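INFO batch 0412 | record 1 of 1 | parsing
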Amino acid sequence: MENKKMFGVFFREKPALMLVELRNAKGSMYASSIAKKVDCTYSHVVKILQEMQKSGIVNFDKQGRLKFITLTKKGSEIAEHVDSVKNIL
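INFO prediction complete | emitting tokens
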């Protein structure tokens, strides 16, 4: 089985890739930039990020009209493990 397909067996691909992108970012990111990086619609990314926020995985930091997204400590730990599994596969 292809690595990408096998990764999809264990994780929902887009949310897992979003976590990895946030982990690898040099600071906060916007939802639109995450959407471009993981090849997903903006609205789908926002919906997933809102669920992650409810679970304490990400934080939204609104500064004026901009809304930055950062990982929490819990989110960083999860992203690190997801990235490890991705690299193993």
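INFO post-check: The mean pLDDT is 88.
INFO record closed
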